[in-house]
Model the fold of this input.
Amino acid sequence: RGWHGAPVRGDRRRPFFDDLQAIRDHLERLQVDCSTRRRLRAHERLVVSEPPLPEGFQPYTHVFVEECQDFLKADFEILFKLAIDVNEFVVTGDTCQSIWHGASTDVPRADGMREKTWSRLEAAIRTPYRIGCCLSPISESIIRRHGNTEGEAEAEEQLASPLRPRRDAIPGIRPVVVWCDDDAVAEKTTEIIRAFHDKDDASERGGEFTLLDKSVDRRDWEILTSSIRQKLEGEASLNITVASIETIKGQERWGIGWITSSGFRSENTFLECAYTATSRASFLLVIFIGPDTPVAAWSVLNMLDEKHIRFWDRASEDGLKAGIN
Done:
């Protein structure tokens, strides 16, 4: 709060703010080139100090902001300073994917801004129909949770619409749930890709199957992905990769493998992370469950309707039922 001019209230917040200030000073001393440092410097120059814009700089006539659910108030304050008219803003986003801010995601109002006009996407065109049917209860749960924490009518208007898949979207296949230990992920991934790769014409033109993990140990993952590639050599023209939810956000993959045992970095926004991760698949979604699947993941899986799930084998069906119960 102190970085965008608001006072830091309460003794409990002060130590946290002091720690952030120390991190900021450390980045400045090291001259680290990162987005956080660049944003802080831009905010100081344009908002806190409020000097005139650099000579020769032409403010933008219109500003379009994508993925607005990830923006802080300070980010918007920077953008407001770069526009000729703060009413010429168009922002798009999905509050169900607010993996950083959860229910606190917000689009602030600038001085001189007229009343905001909200438009909702009533149906999901990109999401494959069968995957969308499976994930819809998760989006509905997120919206209910966000709505319970938002009090103002304007905040209610910002809530996303539940995921409603269109029947004329790509059919895809029902998400595959498979029970296995982490050591068996490579073997199971190979089996599943072999089973479904030829059922999608687009996969013949190449594509990517990405395994999701919260923290990527490069050595372990290189061994895993190399093992899968060797097993699939000559059978599938897919690139096998590993990514975190932060790096894959806003992108699509032919296939996504969510290894539930890895969890996510933030427990407070676990539901938003799970929804964002699973909605990245454009054809194949595989959910790996096992003895190390955390309670938070079982809570998410409990929201799914079994009629929209494809169990890889009987052990997978028994494992899911035992886990959610």
User: Anything to note?
Assistant: The two ends are 42 Å apart (CA to CA).
